[in-house]
Inverse folding.
């Protein structure tokens, strides 16, 4: 698969431990997620989804389970990617971002991976994406028309079957049959994003391995019929999984420019080709610029691209986070 310049990102995301992983499984009463008959007192319980009964005796679907009526995206160890209160923002969301209350289903400038959208993904290459059925079935969370689980089943529930109980891949994400690699923050980066902590995801950018950019590239692999896979400059597309030059400020001042700066980790997270965040193995990934589910900005970007200023710009947000000598 071509791994290149990826403009949009995948639906439902934070990431994976690079090796020797023990992913957290769900816990608690079975009734939190399952019901035997989708009936309580002769009708569905008010706390269940309205579209059931669901596969595997579930009480709701993906987006139904991960939607809250509150403002907190992380409650009692449970992550939410949508708030019916409309209170999620760039400073109140989890690592993967969030869906808008009213999810527009339309164009490639959408602020989210619009569920139900039947438009072709930006940069899709038919020869590499023969498995994708979203153009007819509408974009979903998993399976042949989504991002999580396998690429062989249309049903979200079938595609991610067992993934919550015995997760063999971080966030149930795969490239083919290979698990995407990385390390996820236990709180899905809620504290980092809100400014109260520094625990962050470590994304895989392993060259030749199942990196997060390779996952995005399952749908977004070839923009406008031109592909820049050359690791040498000048680039004609922004590359991914290519080592950042060690002469750049982000490396010269690595301890403070990235690992010591919460804003940097939040606004332009790097990928690494090893489990340790060390000078020499950092790479840009798709998630260095985008959030998987959505943001308040076009193209699921982490920041307002049009507001990035050179020659006097400051801070670690936007392009200048990595291209710090242009500040």
């Amino acid at each position: 698969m071509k791994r290149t310049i990826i403009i949009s990102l995948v639906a439902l995301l934070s990431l994976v431990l690079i090796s020797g992983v023990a992913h957290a499984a769900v816990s608690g009463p079975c009734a939190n997620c399952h019901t035997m008959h989708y009936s309580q007192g002769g009708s569905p319980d008010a706390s269940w989804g309205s579209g059931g009964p669901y596969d595997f005796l579930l009480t709701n679907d993906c987006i139904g389970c991960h939607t809250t009526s509150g403002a907190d995206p992380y409650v009692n160890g449970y992550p939410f990617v949508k708030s019916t209160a409309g209170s999620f923002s760039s400073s109140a969301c989890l690592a993967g971002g969030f869906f808008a209350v009213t999810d527009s289903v339309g164009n490639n400038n959408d602020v989210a991976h619009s569920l139900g959208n039947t438009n072709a993904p930006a940069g899709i290459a038919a020869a590499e994406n023969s498995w994708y059925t979203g153009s007819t079935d509408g974009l979903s969370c998993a399976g042949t028309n989504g991002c999580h689980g396998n690429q062989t089943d249309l049903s979200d529930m079938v595609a991610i079957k067992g993934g919550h109980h015995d997760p063999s891949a971080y966030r149930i994400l795969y490239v083919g049959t290979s698990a995407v690699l990385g390390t996820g923050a236990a709180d899905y980066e809620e504290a980092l994003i809100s400014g109260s902590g520094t625990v962050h995801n470590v994304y895989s950018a392993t060259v030749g391995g199942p990196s997060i950019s390779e996952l995005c590239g399952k749908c977004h692999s070839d923009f406008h019929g031109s592909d820049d896979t050359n690791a040498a400059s000048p680039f004609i597309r922004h590359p991914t999984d290519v080592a950042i030059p060690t002469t750049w400020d982000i490396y010269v001042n690595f301890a403070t420019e990235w690992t010591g700066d919460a804003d940097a980790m939040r606004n332009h997270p790097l990928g690494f080709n090893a489990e340790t965040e060390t000078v020499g193995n950092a790479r840009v990934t798709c998630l260095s610029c985008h959030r998987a589910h959505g943001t308040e900005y076009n193209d699921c970007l982490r920041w307002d691209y049009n507001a990035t200023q050179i020659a006097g710009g400051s801070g670690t947000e936007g392009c200048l986070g990595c291209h710090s000598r242009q500040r």
Strands lie at 67-68, 74-75, 78-79, 82-83, 174-175, 178-179, 182-183, 202-204, 271-272, 282-283. Residues 229 and 237 are 9 Å apart (CA to CA). The chain has one domain: 1-41+51-327.
